[in-house]
Amino acid sequence: MISKVKRQIDILIEGKVAGFDLKIIIDCKYFNKKVDVKAVESFLSYLQDLKASKGILITNNGFTAAAENRANFDTQDIELRIINFEDLEEFQAFLAIPYADAHCAIVSSPPGWIVDIEPLGNYQCSFYPAGLCQREALSAEGFIYFLMSQKDKKLPSVTDLKSFQEQRLSYKQPKIEYIQTTVKREDCNVSLRVIDAIEMNDTIEYTIFLDYSDIVIFMTLLTPRLKETEYLKKLEWIAQKLTKGAVIYNSLEQPININL
User: Fold this and answer.
1) Residue ranges of the domains in the chain?
2) Is the CATH number 3.40.1000.10 carried by domain 95-251+255-259?
3) Distance between CA atoms of residues 40 and 211, nearest Å
4) How far apart are CA 210 and CA 190, in angstroms?
5) Paired strand residues for 128
6) How far apart are CA 19 and CA 106, in angstroms?
7) I want to staple 110 with a disulfide (CB 3.0 to 4.6 A). Which of 66, 76, 99, 237 is the partner?
8) What CATH class has 11-90?
């Protein structure tokens, strides 16, 4: 702490990533008007004082345009969230920790979307626009599902995983391309695939791969063509913000903690 003064923190998440300290601070503001730029600047100063890696500022009535610009273009990793506090009992989550075997990840949903940890299919979690259920989003809106693939003898590399997926496609003549992505990470290699086919009608598929030494984390977006540019940004947002970790088990092989 730079100021050497005790500070009150609403929610604190701490851990380590590749030997570096990680500190996520979540602050809640219950106001009768939109949060202005001064409040965001105060929060940014607060994060710097506490040497935070990431900050999430939550409020009930939204943010002014100046406040959003201040947060979006600052070098500090900060997210702005709007929650109606009167509806907390029905609130859909924006933060989750999906895991598989010894691996996990802290993931947060992009603005306007939620993360669902009760999957309908064979995936760890899903992301879709707030206010919808999984089935509605999957059938008519944007939908992202999250999976982890352990590197083993069957699929020892990300190339093998991609080939395995592409060989299992049921489309007659799918168009498969690998395109540039805005996601920049130092802890893994990143690639972005797009699949298009006549049988997909008004839907197009994007998959982003995070290739680590022992595991591949990938997320697939199914989106209406009219919204693919908008929703591709949501997919890349999730991949950029993701934090990889490890699951700690007890002697009964029950998960008891995570190591970041």
Assistant:
1) 11-90, 95-251+255-259
2) yes
3) 34
4) 5
5) 114
6) 17
7) 237
8) alpha beta
Residue 101 one-letter amino acid: D
Higher pLDDT among residues 30 and 168, named by residue: 168
Amino acid at 49: D
DSSP, collapsed to helix, strand or coil, labels residue 116 as strand
pTM to 2 decimals? 0.69
Give me the mean pLDDT over the 167-192 stretch.
94
Which residue shows structure tokens 């940004």?
233
Looking at per-residue pLDDT, the higher value among 178 and 15 belongs to 178
Residues with Cβ < 8 Å from 172, sequence gap 6 or more?
197, 198, 199
CA distance 68 to 85: 20
Instruction: Copy the structure tokens of residue 201.
Output: 């009608």
127, 162, 188, 257 from 16: Cα distances, Å? 26, 30, 16, 13
Q: Identify the DSSP state of 259.
A: E
Cβ(224)–Cβ(141) below 8 Å: yes
pLDDT tens readout for residues 87-133: 444 445 677 888 888 888 888 888 788 888 888 888 989 999 887 88
Amino acid identity for residue 44 in this structure: L
Q: DSSP per residue over 137-197, as a string? A: HHHHS-EEEEEEEE--SSS-SHHHHHHHHHHT---SS-EEEEE--S---SSSEEEEEEEE-
C-alpha Rg value of the chain to the nearest Å: 20
pLDDT tens per residue, range 232-245: 999 999 999 898 88
In single-letter form, the type of residue at position 141 comes to E
pLDDT of the residue at 206: 98
